[in-house]
Amino acid sequence: MRHPIRSFIISVCASISIGYTHLAMADIVSDTETILNWAENAFPEFFPEHQTTQSIEPWLFRYYPQTDIYAGINTTDYNAYVLGGPFGNEPVFISSSAGLVADIAGSGGNGDIPACNTANIPEGFVYRQSGNVIEITTNGQCIKLPRDTNLCEPPGQPEPGEPVATGISVLTKTEVLASEWRGVQSSIPLSFLGTQPGSSAVCILNTPTEEQIDLIINSDICLDVTEEMQEQLAAIPGVTVTPPIGQATKMTVTSTRVADCLQTDAETIYDMYTNEILRSPVPPQIPDIPNLPGL
Questions:
Q1: How many CB atoms lie within 10 A of CB 72?
Q2: CA angle 156, 210, 67 (to 5 degrees)
């Protein structure tokens, strides 16, 4: 960091009171991403090239070396500021974060990260992108998903209609690093109820868009599945349920363009133009577990 903003940050830090709730912090982090993504899309002359958000209390900010400009949100007053370049060496107030988020939504402005349409993501999910790496997190909280939601829909999808033979083949590999149930104690393995550590690969022929090529998506999320799973889990002998119930998963997904899906190690190969499944894994054998009513 340069001296002007560093000294300003230090002076403000001295007056901060502690005690922000996790929920409030999650909201301001999400709002910050929306505002700064929108600023990059709307004012590329000031904020060229996507930059990752950094954090030095009480600031969430991005620095743009091409223009020597800082843009960020002060988590003490929840206002947006800019600094550097044509704005000078003192932070310049722009607007409240709440006002900016409302204006962006009302104007149809684009607050997405470059690789995903995040306009309808669930509250509590936070998205960040740096280069071709996307980070998705719920910050340790278990989030209840609404019925109609969008976790990371790539922009540029074609309108519904006849499929197109694009000639684009994309290999997507998924590595589940960790998975656990929260609010559940069991004397038997619950691996058949959810995602387990391991890896898999799918290759898609005639992918309609190149937006997801050469992306790395790291996710660390927890979903609140109390409503969906409480009765089902409580009916299993040896299982004790203490709501709320959460299913937490850490995984990495990589997508790479390939010349020929058939020459990859993908367990599943699907052609979006012909709607054919060219390769399919053998369905896994679910162990015979007695006395599992409702499963």
A1: 26
A2: 80
> Side-chain half-sphere of 104: how many Cα atoms within 13 Å?
23
Helix (H, G, I), strand (E, B) or coil at 237: coil
Using alpha carbons, select from 143, 81, 163, 150 the residue that is nearest to residue 112.
Answer: 150
Please, is 35 exposed, middle or buried when counting C-beta atoms within 10 Å of its C-beta (0-12, 13-18, 19+)? buried
- Across the beta sheet with 126-130, what order do the strands follow? 126-130, 133-143, 215-224, 239-258, 169-186, 198-205, 268-271, 276-279
**Residue 258 near residue 213 (C-beta atoms within 8 A):** no
**Burial of 204 (C-beta count, 10 Å sphere; 0-12/13-18/19+):** buried
User: What are the φ and ψ backbone dihedral angles of 82, each rounded to 5 degrees?
Assistant: -130, 160
Contact yes or no for 119/112 (Cβ under 8 A): yes
pLDDT 10s per residue in the chain (295 long)? 444 444 433 333 333 333 333 334 556 887 888 888 888 877 888 998 778 888 898 999 999 999 999 999 998 899 999 999 999 999 999 988 888 887 776 555 556 666 666 656 677 787 776 667 788 888 888 988 776 665 665 544 445 567 788 899 999 999 999 999 999 988 877 766 666 788 999 998 988 766 667 788 889 999 999 998 888 888 888 889 999 999 999 999 898 899 999 999 999 999 988 888 999 876 544 444 444 343 3
118 vs 240: CA distance, rounded Å: 37
User: Which SS3 state, helix, strand or coil, does residue 2 take?
Assistant: coil
Report how far residue 205's alpha carbon sits from residue 84's, in angstroms, rounded to the nearest whole number. Answer: 47
